[in-house]
Amino acid sequence: MWPDDFAERYRKLGYWTGQTLFELLTDSDHLAVGDLSYRRLRDRSLRLAAGLNHSGVRRGDRVVVQLPNVTEYFEVIFALFRLGALPVFALPAHRASEIGYFCSHTAAVAFITEHAELAAAAGDARVILIGDLAAIDGDPDTLPPGPNPSDLAFLQLSGGSTGLPKLIPRTHDDYLYSVRESAAICGLTPDSVYLAVLPVAHNFTMSSPGVLGVFHAGGRVVLAPQPDPATVFPLIARERVTITAVVPPIAHLWLDSVSLATDLSSLEVLQVGGAKLADSVAERVRPVLGSQLQQVFGMAEGLVNYTRLDDPDDVVLHTQGRPISPDDEVLIVDDDDRPVPDGTVGHLLTRGPYTIRGYWNAEEHNRTAFTADGFYRTGDLVRRRPDGYLVVEGRAKDQINRGGEKIAAEEVENHLLTHPAVHDVAVVAVPDPYLGERTCAYVVARAGTTAPKLSEVRTYLRERGLAEYKIPDRVRVLDTFPVTGVGKVSRRELRAALRAGAR
Ligand code: AMP
Ligand code: DBH
User: Fold this and answer.
1) Is residue 346's pLDDT more than 60?
2) Number of domains, the chain
3) pTM to 2 decimals?
4) Which of 333, 357, 360, 362 stands 20 to 30 A from 385 (CA)?
């Protein structure tokens, strides 16, 4: 992972403290999540760890975890952290296509899910349904030694921009650093009550400061089964929620639904991230909800930027924050990797004490996704203000950001290219007032066939087991693709041409 001199430096500076994620669980009787106290969550996780170990799950093994926002999720991940087995964090929306890939690519020993219908996708991995977990029970005294803090703790998903999703290897040391600092930046205390609205396995919900940040502070996590105001507003009122984290479309929806609100007076901080928040929405947060807005610009690969709780309105409303760490190195460069002056838009490259140096088992992709000296190419276009705050201005990667859900254009294209009536296809983002972006598939039909309509495309991709959020919102049929100059255009140029011509 990190070169020795960097690792030594991060330890010396006190960033990496030599603890594991399991150590977030104390034996306090304060509630941790749902009706589980820290002590009960710890005990239950230890017993589950011993039971899993007994059935063959070992340190270093991969286990694909796909659970909704329920307490069992926490028992499972802490059991795996204790064993040193690596959760691979699938999202609830993933289907056979994604699950099958995660299981095979990681050679997972088990797949833990609520979806019995996805069992067939797991291949050699043993399927453990959520209802089976309670019966997995062992004696914690039989547990072997746990992992080292410098070991990998889990594999997180990247939104990706290539045909196959990339997995992000995070260590106990590096992740705990980001969690600890995030908890401090977000002002968490034992009195904090955090509402998990987005899927708990998402990096934002997990660590910015997320559920792990809350555990670090000794606070309490409340789980929302879904993000709609009718579910969430009563929960905020009843549980006296102090902080929660959402993507921009959810913030927008909440702001438009406040007449439904019971009592949101406990909500001190509303974090918004995952996609660019429109100024017009940002400006309504305090007047309408009475909460402090915090913008969060993060990535599962590492770097997380926050506006600070005491920042002036100009910063909170119009920037995406600044990095967590004084040792987050941020470079903003032109197309030739030459630094641009402050205020000029460029590619964001970053390196630091909690940013990965490479995707998991992806040597070839890593050669282009990282610079020779280890900077991660985020694919984001940003500018830095003189005060050091970043403003996200766009994106250079072939990705669609559909209200915070990331879709790799190439992944969807590869699925569509298998359709018998599709000669060629390009998947691009089109602007959308609510989600920010939606997905449009431009299709050229194979000679002698009729291009599939939207409904056929959608059915076809669902049958291939693709997650719903990746399924195009629109299909446009073209006779040919625009060609610039001579010869074949690259897919990247093609997407750019289509985007430019999109109405
Ligand atoms: P991932 O790499 O899949 O974890 O997704 C991270 C990406 O989400 C970033 O590289 C950005 O493109 C996007 N993103 C996250 N937060 C924000 C934000 N606050 N504003 C704009 N884009 C964001
Ligand atoms: O979009 C993201 O991936 C994201 C957003 C906010 C993230 O990973 C994070 C905070 O940690």
Assistant:
1) yes
2) 2
3) 0.97
4) 357
